[in-house]
Write a structure and sequence with these properties.
Elements lengths: L2 E8 L4 E8 L9 E5 H7 L2 H5 L2 E6 L5 E16 L4 E12 L5 E3 L1 H6 L2 E5 L4 E4 L8 E2 L8
Length: 143
């Protein structure tokens, strides 16, 4: 599994750096990130969360679940020791069942992330040489 360090900033200007799972199996229409409820509450005022719209997703196992979502709420950047890529404007999908940030296929590609060896946790930016692989970030859980 590959995790990258990201800076997540809301429209209010609240921001946090955390690890995000880069899940190429999470398909979306545009850039979006699943954000655990605990982190969403830190980034976005309560009244904004309360008024979030609902979206339905087909999840693993084929069943449909509803999530709260806020369009274009986030600016997300990948942060490494030698580079910052982004920010990319993304939708925030709020999940009470997840404890880690998850970025989907469109956001992965927009942030120039190339998943090289997922089981080994190795990745790079796609405009870097093949020899410059990076190691996965440590997990950060939001409970």
């Amino acid at each position: 599994m590959i995790r990258v360090k990201v800076r997540v900033e809301s429209r209010t200007g609240a921001s946090v750096e955390t690890a995000a799972i880069a899940n190429s199996g999470y398909g979306s229409v545009g850039p979006e990130a699943i954000v655990p409820l605990a982190l969403a509450e830190r980034l976005v005022p309560h009244h904004v969360l309360r008024d979030a719209g609902a979206r339905e997703y087909t999840v693993a196992g084929g069943h449909v679940e509803r999530f709260s979502a806020i369009s274009e709420e986030l600016k997300i950047s990948v942060v490494t020791k030698d580079r910052v890529e982004g920010p990319i404007i993304a939708d925030m999908v709020i999940s009470g069942g997840e404890d880690e940030v998850i970025i989907g296929d469109k956001l992965i590609e927009s942030l120039k992330i190339a998943l090289e060896r997922p089981a080994s946790g190795l990745w790079r930016f796609y405009d870097e040489p093949l020899s410059k692989v990076r190691r996965s970030a440590e997990p950060e859980r939001w409970i």
